[in-house]
Amino acid sequence: MPAEKRISDAELAARVVRPAFGEVLTEHMVSVQWSAEQGWHQAEIVPYAPMLIDPAMVGLHYGQVVFEGLKAYRQPDGSVAAFRAVDHARRFQRSATRLAMPEPPVELFLDALAELVAADRRWVPEDDTKSLYLRPILYATDPSLALRPGTRYRLLVLAMVTETFFGEGAPPVSVWASTRYARAARGGTGEAKCAGNYAGGFVAQVEAVEHGCRQVVWLDAAEHTWVEEMGGMNIFFGYGDHLVTPPLSGTLLPGITRSSVLTLATELGMTVEERMLSLAQWRADCASHAMTEAFACGTAAVITPVGHVAAESGEFRIGDGRPGPAAARLRTALVGVQRGRVPDRHGWRHELAGPDPAARTHA
């Protein structure tokens, strides 16, 4: 994009003062095409702008759409690094495979992120409360209403400036345990990051808001008994220094943040257990004060404490309703790695852009 067509530094600064999640997108995007004849081709950086689509597009009618979400952070030396980008690339591939779509190569995924950051580097926040959220999306573009997988696809990568999903320093969230709707069933698409999973969850989220809650807690589809996820996030239960989280059963999204929490918790001296927990047991453990805290985790939410649960069967509070110590320790450890404040023992930071001499460095 020619310099004269870019927004001014002053306008950019004004846009990112309080960037609501999903609202403040940068000036460019990556576009890559795929066809059975040519494979991946026509990779380019283009200005962010509306696009024309065919009204009979397969992705629009039959939901062949998968996406990812990961964040890039400015590092103390002025470089820009994405958190666990390779793991996000591999999950993107698994999602594509589940929906009978071509797998974008890991190298293409990483190159696309780097090219977009290079084009819109000035959008990478220096403010420690903000980050650059990267959204790869893959969808079928065939202009056909035949009920079959597409033969042509388009990969886009967008970027936006965001704060945490619930706001920095927000109080613990209240949640609604839905016994009316289900997110996913075994054999379905629960472990894929596909558009349909989120569209199907909107009605339950509306139900949660109607009951004065900010998020929905998903229970299993068969019995509406066992806790699985919270909105689009994984959930953890704290019993002092012992953490419990639902196991990956094929109905849960295998969260990258979830995986990171399991690793960091062990390093912090906590014990971790993957096992099923019923809504009734959740209530009982809170009543007996055996459970001291609960929190959700995800790329957008980072680590968000849960303070209050509501359901058709009644309400209950977790601990004293305030953030718990395990969530606080884990958040500090996680953010420290993401922002380059502590050594990266696991190779989780993937550099997208080298040090910028003009950038402000952090102490």
TrEMBL record:
Similarity field: Belongs to the class-IV pyridoxal-phosphate-dependent aminotransferase family.
CDD domains: BCAT_beta_family (cd01557)
Organism, as annotated: Lentzea waywayandensis
Tree of life domain: Bacteria
EC numbers, comma separated: 2.6.1.42
Annotated keywords: Amino-acid biosynthesis, Aminotransferase, Branched-chain amino acid biosynthesis, Pyridoxal phosphate, Transferase
Biological processes per GO annotation: isoleucine biosynthetic process; L-leucine biosynthetic process; L-valine biosynthetic process
Cofactor(s) annotated in UniProt: pyridoxal 5'-phosphate
Enzyme class: transferase
InterPro entries in alphabetical order: Aminotrans_IV, Aminotrans_IV_CS, Aminotransferase-like, B_amino_transII, BCAT-like_C, BCAT-like_N, BCAT_family
Name of this chain's protein: Branched-chain-amino-acid aminotransferase
NCBIfam families the record matches: ilvE_II, PRK13357.1
Reaction(s) catalysed by this chain's protein: L-leucine + 2-oxoglutarate = 4-methyl-2-oxopentanoate + L-glutamate; L-isoleucine + 2-oxoglutarate = (S)-3-methyl-2-oxopentanoate + L-glutamate; L-valine + 2-oxoglutarate = 3-methyl-2-oxobutanoate + L-glutamate
Entry's transmembrane regions: none
Sites of N6-(pyridoxal phosphate)lysine modification: K193
Pathway(s) where this gene product acts: Amino-acid biosynthesis; L-leucine biosynthesis; L-leucine from 3-methyl-2-oxobutanoate: step 4/4; Amino-acid biosynthesis; L-valine biosynthesis; L-valine from pyruvate: step 4/4; Amino-acid biosynthesis; L-isoleucine biosynthesis; L-isoleucine from 2-oxobutanoate: step 4/4
Molecular function (Gene Ontology), one example: L-isoleucine-2-oxoglutarate transaminase activity
